[in-house]
């Protein structure tokens, strides 16, 4: 520590003459002298503060943004949520369609295990995914329903609506004809702003928006399930259309007949049905092919 103190005083020129003489006689003096000599020859670089500032500004680095590592997780979750949302939307909006082509019948079950039988040339559409919350279906044509006990749903047609609870019933909606038959329990029929409640054995027939008949003598099951076509004051064109559906044939008719028909025709014996039709309307028929029938005026 003493030598360091002497060196500092000597370099600063603060030693007395006596101290300086003593220090110069020390073994280390020659080394210190050379250090002082060489140090005096060193030059400090010029310091241009303005130039340094400009360099700092010019080479200023953009701040590095550190993105959180979990950013990709957030994106993945967002994509997943959007995907699920789109999937749920399509599930809710998608419909289930059951059909019975001409000459066929189709039996199936609804999500609540209610049984449905579609008649020829008929179609039912409903939303299977959210059936529990929206119990309704759309019917075009004719169908027999055997509703599961305690279950309830609506049958919508272009001509009216039928609301049911644990019952068996038949609905037919074709052109301007709307028919409902109740075989068990009760159903509520809505049409043209009116409501009618049918109980077991009751039925209602509506043509052109007008109630034409209510019967109390219907059978235990719909006639069409017994291979019969039942008509109630129907025109020849309506009868022909039903026969084409049931037999999957084409019937050519150029006759204009106003006579209405009420009765039953077989849906499993074309020849018998044509015989009854020809006698009722006094016409003739021919069958050039298996799937084509021609009706002509009786000579």
Based on the model shown, name its key terms:
299 residues, Jelly Rolls, 3 domains, 13-stranded mixed beta sheet, 3-stranded mixed beta sheet, transmembrane helix
Summarize the structure.
This protein has 299 residues and is α+β, with helices and mostly antiparallel strands. 29% of the residues lie in helices and 35% in strands. The protein is rod-shaped and about 165 Å long.
Written account of the structure:
The chain has 3 domains: 1-37, no CATH class; 95-226, Jelly Rolls; 227-299, 3-Layer(bab) Sandwich (Phage tail protein beta-alpha-beta fold). The protein has 7 helices and 18 strands. The relative contact order is 0.06. Strands 1, 2, 3, 4, 5, 6, 7, 8, 9, 10, 11, 12 and 13 form a 13-stranded mixed sheet that branches. A 3-stranded mixed sheet has the order 15-18-17, with helices on one face. With 299 residues, it is α+β, with helices and mostly antiparallel strands.
What is the element layout, followed by pairings?
Layout: H1 2-12, H2 17-24, H3 29-40, H4 49-58, H5 71-93, E1 96-100, E2 106-109, E3 115-118, E4 122-126, E5 136-146, E6 152-156, E7 161-165, E8 168-174, E9 177-184, E10 186-191, E11 194-199, E12 203-207, E13 210-213, E14 228-234, H6 236-247, E15 250-253, E16 261-266, H7 270-281, E17 283-289, E18 292-297
């Amino acid at each position: 520590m003493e030598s360091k103190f002497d060196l500092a005083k000597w370099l600063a020129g603060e030693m007395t003459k006596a101290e300086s003489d003593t220090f110069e006689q020390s073994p280390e003096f020659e080394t210190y002298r050379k250090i002082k000599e060489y140090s005096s020859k060193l030059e400090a670089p010029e310091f241009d503060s303005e130039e340094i500032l400009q360099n700092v500004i010019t080479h200023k680095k953009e701040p590095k943004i550190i993105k959180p590592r979990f950013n990709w997780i957030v994106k993945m979750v967002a994509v997943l949520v959007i995907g699920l949302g789109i999937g749920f939307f399509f599930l809710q909006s998608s419909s289930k369609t059951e059909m019975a082509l001409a000459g066929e019948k189709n039996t199936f079950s609804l999500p609540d295990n209610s049984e449905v039988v579609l008649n020829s040339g008929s179609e039912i559409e409903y939303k299977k995914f959210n059936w529990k919350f929206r119990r309704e279906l759309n019917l075009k044509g004719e169908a027999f329903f055997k509703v599961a006990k305690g279950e309830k749903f609506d049958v919508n047609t272009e001509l009216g609506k039928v609301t049911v609870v644990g019952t068996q019933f038949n609905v037919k909606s074709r052109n301007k004809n709307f028919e409902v038959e109740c075989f068990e329990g009760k159903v509520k029929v809505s049409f043209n702003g009116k409501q009618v409640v049918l109980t077991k054995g009751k039925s209602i027939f509506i043509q052109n928006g007008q109630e034409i008949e209510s019967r109390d003598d219907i059978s235990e099951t719909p006639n069409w399930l017994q291979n019969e076509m039942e008509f109630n004051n129907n025109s020849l064109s309506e009868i022909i259309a039903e026969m084409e559906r049931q037999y999957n044939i084409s019937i050519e008719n150029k006759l204009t007949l106003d006579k209405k028909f009420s009765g039953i025709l077989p849906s499993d014996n074309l020849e018998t049905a044509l015989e009854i039709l020809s006698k009722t309307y006094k016409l003739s028929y021919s069958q050039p092919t298996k799937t084509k029938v021609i009706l002509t005026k009786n000579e």
